[in-house]
Design brief:
This protein is mainly beta. Helix content is about 5%, strand content about 45%. A hairpin with a 5-residue loop joins strand 24 and strand 25. The longest helix has 10 residues, at about 1-10. It starts with a helix and ends in a 7-residue tail after the last strand.
């Protein structure tokens, strides 16, 4: 309990406005193709940040824009053990913070940048664990351990609430990949609450900016549709009824619109008015697809990947203004990009 209270104190540091020194980085993206690259949104200039023989993924900007956290393999096995690293935004001074990640678990920065949260397991197929670690790599603290010999770590995917006081994540207690339920953890008390109760896969949770709803996807009706619920798991509503699978819901700043991806007619990106149920196409690609979408920090733009094959990697990184629908290709030299990360994406001022 003392550990949870310590973490809660760290998270509840007042959310400061974006530092002046980091303002220019509001137009910065990162992506990976095994190494990590940085893209200037305005100029479209691509800069390689890492050049190593191991696979690197999940780049995430620090709240002040001065550092990037990422995961990298520390064993020869692609499906083996990973480490959590942090480097300066120019690629310098890379350092290992934690060496106990299983699979490629994306880290979360605390709002003040003092620590990170990540999902792991002591062994493949072992307990599901969520840890925090200080920015200097010290004081690794266990925030949650769900005892299960078949727990599926890749399905954890913890996300922080907008006020930084709660986590939502998935637990696959049957270990068959077919029964992932969403849970909420209150960091101050350690109270754990199961939010979904069905024999389905419920995943990709995303908090609305006002903290009143959690969007997620579920295949409880067959295909993956988008649902929303209150933070306590009540008032579950199905938001999409499409003849295709839907992925990656992101709330816009007004907490009334969601952008998401669908494979109904190839891979494309859409916007949903939650109050009216109206869906509009943001992309209409037929010979290629759009996927891997991330939302800009101010919610006015999306960055996404385009190409013929999501598995093989993207041919281009594109950006779209949501108000006008105008899109541009940032670079033709992305070298099969994966894992977009936009400065400021996973924290809120």
């Amino acid at each position: 309990m003392k550990v949870l209270k310590l973490v809660f104190v760290l998270i509840c540091v007042l959310f400061a406005s974006v530092p002046v020194a980091a303002q220019n980085q509001l137009q910065e993206l990162v992506f990976t193709n095994g190494d990590i690259f940085r893209v200037d949104v305005d100029g479209g200039v691509v800069t390689q940040l890492t050049d190593t023989p191991v696979y690197e993924s999940n780049p995430v900007w620090s709240p002040d824009g001065t550092e990037i956290a990422y995961t990298a393999a520390i064993t020869d096995d692609y499906y083996g053990q990973y480490g959590l690293y942090v480097m300066n935004a120019d690629g310098s001074n890379a350092g290992l913070l934690a060496d106990d990640l299983m699979w490629r678990s994306k880290a979360l920065w605390l709002a003040d940048g003092s620590a990170l949260i990540y999902a792991t397991s002591p062994v493949e197929g072992g307990d599901c664990i969520i840890n925090s670690v200080k920015r200097d790599g010290s004081d690794v603290q266990e925030m949650l351990r769900k005892h299960s010999v078949q727990c599926n770590v890749p399905n954890l995917n913890p996300v922080l609430s907008p006020d930084g006081t709660q986590l939502v994540f998935g637990l696959d207690e049957l270990g068959n990949g077919l029964n992932t339920q969403l849970f909420r953890l209150k960091l101050a008390s350690g109270e754990l609450t199961q939010l979904t109760h069905n024999r389905a896969t419920n995943t990709a949770p995303n908090w609305s900016p006002d903290g009143t709803q959690i969007a997620y996807i579920s295949n409880q009706e067959g295909l993956f549709q988008i649902y929303a619920m209150n933070p306590d798991g009540s008032n579950i509503q199905q938001l999409t009824h499409r003849n295709g699978n839907n992925f990656g819901p992101y709330w816009l700043p007004d907490s009334q619109h969601i952008v998401f991806q669908s494979d109904q007619h190839g891979y494309n990106i859409f916007e949903l008015d939650v109050t009216k149920g109206v869906v509009r196409n943001l992309t209409n690609l037929t010979k290629s697809g759009a996927w891997g979408m991330v939302l800009s920090p101010d919610g006015t733009q999306i960055a996404y990947l385009t190409g013929d094959d999501p598995v093989a990697g993207a041919d281009h990184v594109s950006i779209m203004n949501l108000a006008t629908g105008q899109a541009q290709v940032l670079s033709d030299d992305t070298n099969k990009a994966y894992s977009l990360g936009w400065y400021g994406l996973n924290w809120r001022p």
